[in-house]
């Protein structure tokens, strides 16, 4: 409101109040005159008494009106005061906004190539940028921001409407939650604990077990112990810590958590998570129905830089021939149920799990021979399905998982992941283990002796014409020649709705063709080849050879033609699939 308008209204109020006071004074004078007249003329007593009673009522009404006007004046004063404060506040906010704008302009970006600052941190001072970047390098996510966010921050409820309406029985099994960590940010762990306490029914949550796989960070020692004591003071000894005396790896840390758990159900999670609303009830209800299920909640993603929550679609948890986990489309039979709350049968888990504690022990928990990181989730899936259990994804149980831009504890994961994958293959995969060896003994490149700096490549996708291209060792140039004569080009996928492609000779024209292997078999295409290391590649049916021809000195084409004696070498050959002692690597230099 404009100041001149407020002053005008206040003046009118003063005038009205003066008029009321005058009216009161006038009535009092009249009343006194009436009383004097009554002494002289007693015959009109009855009539005058009636008038006096009416005057008394009018006097009382005026008194109340006066009090109301006084209260109204006080309200006006308060409004004037509040408006003045608002004006001052707006002025301060405007000044602060201007200061921020000046600050943004004043500070240059110190780390323009850092993943941390691509979407976040434009308003940080140079000193703050340096602190944030150093923390990011140490942890792989934005600890600077995490330390400034509330531990009980709200996150979006990503459940479907059907899940939100679903109800569960009260008498569910009890729950132990295991959080695994090694040099996590302290605020990250505390936020995970807080979310579990706040979003799990207290009568179901029996304990939270922290398993420290030999962390070296100081704040995960005394400061973490103090925080645990604070939680336990409020929640009746709910938390306990188990500390490894040497680094034992992710799998053994999970086993340690399972061994310490005492509830009916154990949920084994990473410490960099935030559970969502009603996450536990679907798990406990399903395990009450069937104790032989290993359950995988649905992951959502917390971005490593700005901690924004990204909702992921419900999917099955699968794996490729390298035993690396990946998402698979939902099966047709799940859609046929027309129930988006229904469990999804899944080959494996994505990383975190929940299970009946005793059943998990009956199938051997996890393989303690797995090292550091990788493959343990696929191992558990294979273990469950082959030992009388099953794996399901529950759409109504959702957990937000904080991604890392990098894993500072192991910059090169390939050694540990490969070693674990081959161990899983040897233990569980029988005649299929050779495919895992194939996947991990890459690159498998195929070169012509006429020009050894170019390799067979699957060519542009979409498209089905292989080409010769400078060697780069990535999957488009992965070639697998099977002793039965098939030649796979472009890697082995082993995924639903995604087929491997085989090299074929169409029998006419001069170009080879890539075709999905199952289609090539069904159509009777020319997909079988004779090949020995260092010799020609000859199609068994057409007798034509796979060769290269030079369009010019810098360009070679892959062609089908009458054999001219060209020779090929494949980088690796495998004898007696999957047996390590028989793996022969014949690298061509």
List its salient traits.
38% helix, two-stranded antiparallel ribbon, alpha+beta, 589 residues, ten-stranded mixed sheet, globular
Can you tell me about this structure?
It contains 15 helices and 26 strands. Strands 1, 2, 3, 4, 5, 6, 7, 10, 11 and 12 form a ten-stranded mixed sheet that branches. Strands 8-9 form a two-stranded antiparallel ribbon.
Mean pLDDT: 85
Number of helices: 15
SSE class: alpha+beta
Tell me how many strands there are: 26
Short account of what is shown:
This protein has about 600 residues and is an alpha+beta fold. It has 15 helices and 26 strands.
Task: Please render the helix and strand layout as text.
Elements: H1 3-40, H2 45-106, H3 126-139, H4 143-146, H5 161-165, E1 175-181, H6 186-198, E2 205-212, H7 222-235, E3 239-243, H8 250-260, E4 265-270, E5 273-275, H9 280-289, E6 293-302, E7 309-310, E8 316-319, E9 325-328, H10 332-336, E10 344-345, E11 353-356, H11 357-362, H12 376-386, E12 390-402, H13 414-428, H14 433-440, E13 446-448, E14 454-457, E15 467-470, E16 479-481, E17 487-489, E18 501-504, E19 513-516, H15 517-523, E20 529-531, E21 537-539, E22 545-552, E23 555-561, E24 568-570, E25 572-574, E26 583-585
Parallel strand pairs: 1-2, 1-4, 2-3, 6-12
Antiparallel strand pairs: 4-11, 5-12, 6-7, 6-11, 8-9, 10-12, 13-24, 14-15, 16-17, 18-19, 20-21, 22-23, 25-26
């Amino acid at each position: 409101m404009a100041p001149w308008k407020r002053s005008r209204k206040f003046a009118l109020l003063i005038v009205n109040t003066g008029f009321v006071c005058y009216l009161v004074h006038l009535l009092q004078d009249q009343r006194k005159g009436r009383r004097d007249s009554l002494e002289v003329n007693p015959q009109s007593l009855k009539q005058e008494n009636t008038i006096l009673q009416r005057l008394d009522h009018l006097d009382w009404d005026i008194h109340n009106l006066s009090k109301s006007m006084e209260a109204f004046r006080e309200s006006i004063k308060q409004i004037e005061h509040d408006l003045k404060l608002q004006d001052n506040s707006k002025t301060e906010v405007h000044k602060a906004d201007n200061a921020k704008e000046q600050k943004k302009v004043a500070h240059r970006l110190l780390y323009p190539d850092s993943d941390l600052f691509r979407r976040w941190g434009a308003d940080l001072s140079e000193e703050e940028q340096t602190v944030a970047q150093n923390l990011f390098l140490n942890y792989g996510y934005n600890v600077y921001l995490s330390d400034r966010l509330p531990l009980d921050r709200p996150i979006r409820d990503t459940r479907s409407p059907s899940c939100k309406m679903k109800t569960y029985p009260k008498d569910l099994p009890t729950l132990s939650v295991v959080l695994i960590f090694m040099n996590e940010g302290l605020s990250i762990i505390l936020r995970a604990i807080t979310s579990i306490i706040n979003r799990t029914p207290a009568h179901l949550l029996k304990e939270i077990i922290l398993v420290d796989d030999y962390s070296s960070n100081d704040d995960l020692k005394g400061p973490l112990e103090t925080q645990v004591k604070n939680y336990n003071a409020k929640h009746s000894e709910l938390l306990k810590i188990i500390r490894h005396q040497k680094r034992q790896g992710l799998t053994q840390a999970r086993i340690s958590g399972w061994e310490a758990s005492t509830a009916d159900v154990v949920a084994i999670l990473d410490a960099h998570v935030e559970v969502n609303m009603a996450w536990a009830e679907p798990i406990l209800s399903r395990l009450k129905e069937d104790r032989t299920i290993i359950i995988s909640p649905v992951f959502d993603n917390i971005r490593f830089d700005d901690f924004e929550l990204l909702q992921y679609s419900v999917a099955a948890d699968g794996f490729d021939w390298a035993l690396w986990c990946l998402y698979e489309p939902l099966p047709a039979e799940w859609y046929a149920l027309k129930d988006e709350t229904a469990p999804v049968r899944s080959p494996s888990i994505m990383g975190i799990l929940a299970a009946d504690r005793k059943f998990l022990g009956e199938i051997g928990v996890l393989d303690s021979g797995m090292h550091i990181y990788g493959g343990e989730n696929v191992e558990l899936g294979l273990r469950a399905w082959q030992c009388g259990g099953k794996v399901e994804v529950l759409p109504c149980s959702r957990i937000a998982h904080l991604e890392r831009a990098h894993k500072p504890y192991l910059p090169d994961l390939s050694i540990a992941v490969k070693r674990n994958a081959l161990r899983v293959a040897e233990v569980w995969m029988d005649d299929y283990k050779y495919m895992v060896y194939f996947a991990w003994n890459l690159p498998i490149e195929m070169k012509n002796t006429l020009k050894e700096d170019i390799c067979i490549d699957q060519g542009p996708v979409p498209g089905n014409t292989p080409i010769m291209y400078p060697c780069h060792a990535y999957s488009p140039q992965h070639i697998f020649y099977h002793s039965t004569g098939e030649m796979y080009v472009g890697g082995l996928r082993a995924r639903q709705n995604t087929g491997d492609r085989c090299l074929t000779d169409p029998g006419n024209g001069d170009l080879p063709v890539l075709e999905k292997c199952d289609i090539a078999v069904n159509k009777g295409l020319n997909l079988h080849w004779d090949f020995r290391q260092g010799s020609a590649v000859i199609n068994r049916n057409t007798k034509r050879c796979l060769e290269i021809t030079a369009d010019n000195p810098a360009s070679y084409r892959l062609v089908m033609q009458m054999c001219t004696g060209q020779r090929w070498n494949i980088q690796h050959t495998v004898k007696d699939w999957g047996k390590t002692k028989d793996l022969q690597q014949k690298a061509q230099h």
